Write the C-alpha cells for this entry.
Amino acid sequence: MATSKESGSKGAASPGNVQKSGQPAKRGFAAMDQNQQREIASKGGQAAHQKGTAHEFDSEEARRAGQKGGEAVSRNRAHMADIGRKGGESRQSAQRAAAAAAKGNRQGEKEG
C-alpha cells in the first residue's frame, strides 16, 4: 500500500511553489514586509473598535493573564535558576562598584 508521501498528497507544495532552500514560497500576509503587515493589522484593530467587537482587557483579566504566564515560566527550573544567577551577578557587581567608589573617596580624603 502506498503512503501519502509516495503517492503525493494534496497538502504538499507543488514544485513551482518551492524555493531553492526546499521551503515553500511565502505567500499572502507572510510574504509582506513588517510595515505592510503592521498597517493591515492596525486597520483591522481600528475596524473592530469602531464596530464594537474588539476585546479590551480589564485589570482583573490582565492580572490573571500575567499570573498564568508567570506560572508557565516558573515551571522551567533551569530558566529560573539562570535568571536568579544573573540577578545575583548583577547585584554583586553593583555592590563591588559601590564599595570601590567608597574606598576611592576614603583614600582621597587621607591624601588631602
Summary: The mean pLDDT is 79. Residues 77-111 form the longest helix (35 residues). Helices lie at 4-7, 34-51, 59-74, 77-111. The chain has four helices and no strands.
